[in-house]
Write a structure and sequence with these properties.
313 residues, mainly alpha, 3 domains, 0% strand
Length: 313
């Protein structure tokens, strides 16, 4: 997918804003885009809550189908006659400015490396038969797997960069997110700045005279970070997890792929599969279902996709 020319998506505060914009432009995309933002915003909030409210990583459960679940809540009512339009709007959303558009675009990019589906142009030009629509639905289901991984990594990375953003109190997390954006305000695009100003204004009214309000300043100014022992390993495992699930890799399969990519001496968490399994569970909140059968040549199904994701193949 070419993200060289990105569409600017106006900031929409409410569903009414989205509807009015769609009516003015005679383009229903904006109503769908608003709901996509709600879907992905909830996905991010739930991942952050998992990290914030479960201090023991072994108690967390990441990449267990949350993106599909929330998609079903937001768009599950879409009939077969409506789904092709939703599919087109989702594809269009992958080419808009902003963090959510970037995430969907990245998920499309990962799927293009799997090569399990026809090119998007062909999918978008389908005639709307039942088989075509089911194909599009399967595409979106797989897209959700990659969005789970992308969201997981972003939450995991932020967890180490900004501990203040992961307070157990949901209100404080909300305020900390505003403070984090304020800290990086100069790097935001125009619409993101407008969004920040609106959220800041609402929060100022909601938390007026509240002891929680200083959380914005704390998150904005805090230099405290968490030690991130193995960021490269964490990123690889988190991004490879959709492949682990799809192809039922064993931990030895995952280890073999990691060894092939990192070309580093075998060290902690990667010395043997039992150690990697414990690391996935106790540090990353990832648990494999099913036993699987280890590939004899160290190249399990889907290993080429892992290489392409790392631009090694």
């Amino acid at each position: 997918m070419d993200r060289g020319k990105l569409e600017r998506l106006p900031f929409m505060k409410t569903p009414e804003d989205a509807l009015a914009l769609s009516q003015r432009s005679r383009d229903n995309f904006y109503v769908t885009a608003y709901r996509i933002e709600c879907w992905l915003g909830n996905l991010v909030c739930n991942a952050v809550a998992d990290y914030a409210e479960k201090k023991s990583a072994g108690d967390r459960r990441l990449q267990i189908g949350e993106a599909r679940r929330i998609f079903g809540e937001v768009f599950g009512h879409a009939t077969n006659s409506e789904f092709p339009a939703l599919f087109r709007n989702l594809t269009r959303f992958a080419q808009v400015q902003g963090p959510y558009g970037w995430a969907v675009g990245q998920a499309y990019g990962a799927m293009s490396k799997e090569a399990d589906f026809p090119p998007l142009r062909r999918l978008l030009s389908r005639d709307g038969s039942r088989a075509d629509i089911q194909f599009q639905r399967r595409f979106v289901n797989r897209l959700c797997d990659w969005l789970d991984a992308i969201t997981h990594w972003r939450a995991h990375k932020r967890y180490h960069l900004s501990p203040a953003s992961f307070d157990r109190d949901a209100d404080k997390r909300e305020l900390a997110a505003i403070g984090w954006q304020q800290r990086h305000f100069s790097k935001l695009d125009r619409d993101s700045k407008t969004s920040w100003e609106w959220h800041h204004s609402l929060a100022a009214q909601r938390f007026e005279n509240s002891e929680k309000w200083p959380m914005i300043g704390i998150a904005m100014s805090s230099q405290t970070t968490r030690y991130h022992a193995y960021p490269v390993l964490d990123e690889l495992v988190i991004y490879f997890w959709p492949l682990v699930k799809k192809h039922n890799w064993t931990y030895r399969d995952l280890l073999n792929v990691i060894w092939a990519i990192t070309a580093q001496p075998k060290r902690y968490a990667c010395r043997h599969e039992q150690e990697l399994a414990a690391y996935c569970n106790n540090v990353l909140g990832l648990r494999k279902e099913g036993t699987g059968r280890t590939s004899r040549d160290g190249k399990p199904s889907g290993w080429q996709v892992a290489m392409r994701l790392c631009r090694r193949h």
